[in-house]
Design goal:
- By secondary structure, this protein is of the alpha+beta class.
- The chain folds into two domains: 74 residues, Phosphorylase Kinase, domain 1; 214 residues, Aminoglycoside phosphotransferase (APH), C-terminal lobe (Aminoglycoside 3'-phosphotransferase, Chain: A, domain 2, Alpha-Beta Complex), CATH 3.90.1200.
- Helix content is 41%, strand content 16%.
- The chain has eleven helices and ten strands.
- The strands form three sheets. Strands 1-2-3-5-4 form a five-stranded antiparallel sheet, covered by helices on one side.
- A hairpin with a 2-residue loop joins strand 2 and strand 3.
- It is globular, with a radius of gyration of 20 Å.
Length: 324
Amino acid sequence: MSVYTTVTEAELTQFIQRYNVGNVVSYAGILAGMENTNYAVNTTKGAFILTLYEHYNAEELPFFLGLMQHLSHHYVKTIMPVKDKAGQVLQSLVGKPAALIERLSGKALAAKESSVEHCQIIGKALADFHLAGLSYDEKRPNDRAKGLSARLISRLLPKLSVEDGALLKQEIDYQRSVDWSVLPAGIIHADLFCDNSIFDDVDNKLVLSGIIDLYLACNDAFIYDLAIVANDWCCHVDGSLDEARWLPLLRAYHRVRPIIDIEKEVWVAMLRMAALRFWVGRLDIVFYPPIGDMVMQKDPNELKHKLQTCLRDEQKINQLLTSL
C-alpha cells in the first residue's frame, strides 16, 4: 500500500458521491505495503480505505473483491468492499480501477512486535481462511511464488555480489526439485506479514479485527502460506525462527486444519521458498524502483538472512516439528 497515483480533493469528493457514506472530512496517503495506492478516508459517516489498483485490470479484480465478501460471509475476519448506490463494488478513479473498503478498528501490527498470543490468533485465523476458501468457486494461479522468471533473475544477478548471486542460483535450483503437486492446496493469502493484520483491544482482550491486503491471494499450497507467516511473525532479529512463537502458531493452525505428514516433510522447503520469493521481490524494487509519490521499500537483506538461517537450522527445525 504505497502511493503511486495522486488523487486530488476534488476528485475524491466527486468519487465519494457515488456512495451513501456522507461527505469527505479528511484523507491521507498510506505508506505501507507495496502493491497498490491507498488512502485513508474519513467521512461524516465513517472511516474507509480508498484503493486504486496499480497492477490489476477491471477483469481481474472481481476475484479479490468477491473473495473478501465470501470470507466475511464465512465468518473469517477480513475487510469488506463498500457497495455504491447502484450496488457495485468496483469503480474507476483517475483512470485506475478503484474500490472503497471498510476500515477496521484497531491498528496494523508492526513488524517484530508479534507475541505468542498474536501468533496463536493468526494461526487459527489463517486456518479458518484456508477452509473457507475451499468453497470459493473462483480460482487464480500463483504467478509470484514459484514463478521466479528467468527474465527477473537475469536482470537481478548483475546487481548482486558474487556470494548473493550464488545463493540465489543455488536456491532456485533447489526449489525446482520440490514437488508441490502433492500438497493440500486452495485459496491462500500469500502475503500475510504482520502489517497485513489489524488488531484491537476489546474489554482488555486482544482481538483480531481482520486480515487485510488480499491482493496476492491465489490458489497454492496451504503450508507455503503458513511458512510466509512463520518467517515474518516468528523470527528473531538475526532471521532465525523463534521456537516460543512458531510452535504456538503451528499448533493453533493445526487444531483447525491438521497439518499432514507430507506438509511436515516440506516445511523447511516452504520456509526457504517464502524467504526466497520476498527476497527477490524486494531486490527488484530496490534496483528497479517503481514511480510514485510515496513508494515504500523494505530491506531485502532481512529475507536473505532468513533464508541463510533456515539453511543453517534445517535439522533443528525438523526436530522441533515432532512436538507439533
